[in-house]
Amino acid sequence: MIQKKLESAAQAVADMKDGATLLVGGFGGSGLPSHLVAALVEQGAKELTVVSNNIGAVSDGVAALISNDQVKKIICSFPVGPHENDLIERLQKGTIELEISPQGTLAERIRAGGAGVPAFYTPTAVGTELGEGKETREFNGRVHVLEQAITGDYAFIKGHRADRWGNIVYRKTQRNFNPVMATAATVTIAEVSQIVEVGELDPENIVTPSIYVHRLVLVEQGQEGKVLVNE
């Protein structure tokens, strides 16, 4: 993988089209690629399908995209929070669709998508509203529902350090949905705090290999993010 060019942070999301499916990493505010989300709010792509563990605050995270009328569907495990009234109003108007997936199931759907597994069975949600209408099958005397894998056109992830090829190390709870989302998108864009030379990262600490990372956004405090585009 060869470094091609150094551009503004906004360029990292400039080619996103209306109707794209976007995976957004993070668990609450931990590991949330907030600079990339903010850049997409400015870019303005609409009719997005967004996959995220939770929606976030009104002014941050996926909630900012919802408030800016950029989202047509949200797939998440935790839709409640400060933004809840805004989301409910849009659901009532029919301007947005909500699909709730249990947290572990959501993670596995994304992991399966990255691994090329189209679907899998799980006992989670059997006998609940979340399992209604889904195919079921019994294994070892227990009923399971069939869940479809999730893939995206783009993934926004956040890491701590990366080298210039895009190998990524995470800091503590940044390692939540980010690693699996990196594998499940056509284009993965990573927001990191530091970029080092190739060879400076301990290979044993690299969680996301560079093969999954297409663009690196360096976010430095008090400075506009810069992006390294790898092709």
Low-confidence stretches: 1-5
CATH class: Alpha Beta
Overall outline: globular
What is the SS-derived class?
alpha/beta
Q: Estimate the strand proportion.
A: 25-35%
User: CATH topology, what is it called?
Assistant: Glutaconate Coenzyme A-transferase
> Could you give the distance between the termini?
6 Å
User: What's the gyration radius in Å?
Assistant: 18 Å
The largest beta-sheet arranges its strands as: 1-15-14-12-9-2-3-4-5
Question: Which whole number gives the mean pLDDT?
Answer: 90
Q: Mind telling me which CATH architecture this is?
A: 3-Layer(aba) Sandwich
Number of strands: 15
What's the CATH superfamily, by name? Glutaconate Coenzyme A-transferase
Helical proportion? Answer: 10-25%
Count of helical regions: 5
Number of domains: 1
Largest sheet: 9 strands, mixed
Order of helices and strands: EEHEHEHEHEEEEEEHEEEE
